[in-house]
Amino acid sequence: MGEVFAGRYELVELVGQGGMGTVWIVWDRRSECFRAAKVLRQADAASLVRFVREQSFRISHEHCVTPHGWAGEDDRVLFTMDLVRGGSVATLLGDYGPLPSGWAAVLLDQLLSALEGVHHAGLVHRDVKPANLLLEPTGTGRPHLRLSDFGVAVPVNEPRMTRTSAVLGTPGYLAPEQLRGEDPDLRSDLWAAGVVLAEMLTGQPMRHDGSGVPEEVPAGVAPKLWELVQSLTAPGLQDRPESAVRARALLARTGLLVEPPQIPDDDGRGIEVLEQIAWPGPGRDVDEKPQVSVDAPVGEPTLVAAGPVVPPPPLPPTQHLPPTQHLPPTQHLQPAENHVPNEDVRSAEPEVGAYGWRSGRTWLGVVVVGVGLVLLAAAVMVAVS
Amino acid sequence: MEPEIIERNRRQQAELYGAALGDLVLTVRNSLGLTQRRIAEVLGLSPPMLSQLISAQRVKIGNPAVVARLTALLDLAETNLALEPDELEARLGAVSLASGAFTQQSSRHAVTEEVRKALLATGSPARLRASAELVEPSHAALARLLREAADHG
Prior knowledge:
heterodimer; A: 385 residues; alpha+beta; six-stranded antiparallel sheet; two-stranded antiparallel ribbon; 9 helices; B: 153 residues; mainly alpha; 10 helices
């Protein structure tokens, strides 16, 4: 049996490793399902914790992967999120090199759609790059991109308390204003989207010096898309499209974008988004739709509505279901798992994810009923007086 | 997939790359002692993609830069040099950097150029030619490389 994190998440399989932390397939003992989880050092987790906690930052978007919940143990923090198993745009570029116009257009459109959602929530992502554009394993179907890794995302209009000398983000995808250390701006994400588009079209990372990508249209690239690259990566903020919405409109105007459910033309190159991560567990059919997120959909207020005001109720003992085919063979449910919060769990505030959505719902219900009663009482008092 | 389709795909791969990709990868594995996962990493391919190519479920390598890297990797495997682990890692690093537009044509040359320099550092052109004579019967490719290095010295 793998290590159990915070008494709840069994680390089953390491599926990714990066500078910031590790990504695991975990077995969630409470919800009895597999999930993806990112484990970070506490020092690197502040931004994501805030992300999960602050209602206004919750983004529910078909093209975003944001954390559902978190749990802390010792100096590490674990975030649960959807497991996206088709690799990333970086993987796709490695396998196929330059992408056909139709594919690049659809992927850019989905990225811009994700950025619409992010920007609408008042955030700048600040780390848009091919490796953070995850793909669902859609095979030869229409691709489905999901923007991930909100680890360095920041609110757009927040004055910064400290000016660190370190510029966050990834070299090569940083806009000139980011390199100069200016305040976060939505259009910095559009710059990065432009660099990603250039990379999808040429198969080459852009080695730019902050002055923009080459003006000349590379061989084999649709001039209309290269025009869009130029516009998105204009050195001056005011010369770029003003928003992701505007950029999408410009993209639509190229006529190269095919609407869903149409599959973009791959020019006979057999482009296929392969399954990069297999589901763990015995007897598991690949085609079987795994239960990934039992969490409430992101953005639903239940998980955060109670906030620090109402202490969480002791959870009723979980029904001990007989092991099913979803359980790995090593899985033995321990009675101890019901002690929540686990004594080892250190988190500054009631842990959002750890209570699960059922109790979250219950508490929303309690709060709603409570508020309703108060309003009713007020109305009665007004009426009486 | 039908066996005859796999067989046809392997023949098509041989036309494109000199041999079926499964065989080429096997050469690299045996010669350099690399795992399939590591080969995928050096080539810049995802493991499932490499697996599809090896099993000939897919004929063509989609990314031209990967073809360049495979060529460089096969060159490295062919030279049959007994490399120290750190030296091998350095060579593999050079292979994985070979990519796209401007290296596609030159990667083979870039890597062999490095090998030539390394060989020249071990002795004079005359000695390299003498060594070439010695290894010729058993290692023709290595002899060729030694002579090339001598010619450039």
